[in-house]
Write a structure and sequence with these properties.
Distance between the termini: 32 Å
Number of strands: 2
Strand order of the largest sheet: 1-2
Largest sheet: 2 strands, antiparallel
């Protein structure tokens, strides 16, 4: 959600953050976080690559209520899980 806040609100929030390192890939600088937020805005979704726990990755999605409804959350969750499984299979084959 942070990526899609108005720039002025996002900037004020970023000024208050203390970034804690959990793994080698945790984002620990505001500059890097700003770059990541820009990428999230462009992609329309966020990813986590072992930033909180080694060996764990994640994909998150937000959308405007005109396009996404919580009524559809179970359907969306199934699609995300299917996509995650396909990615895991791909990574297993390419690793």
């Amino acid at each position: 959600m942070l990526a899609f806040l108005p720039s002025s609100v996002r900037s004020r929030l970023l000024e208050t953050l203390t970034l804690t390192q959990f793994t080698q890939t945790t984002i620990t600088s505001i500059k890097s976080l700003k770059e990541e937020l820009e990428e999230i805005r462009q992609q329309g979704f966020a990813t986590a690559n072992q930033e909180y726990a080694d060996g764990m990755v994640g994909v998150g999605m937000h959308g405007p209520t005109t396009r996404v409804s919580l009524d559809h959350a179970p359907e969306i969750a199934v699609k995300l899980q299917t996509a995650a499984e396909r990615l895991a299979d791909f990574w297993d084959m390419s690793g």
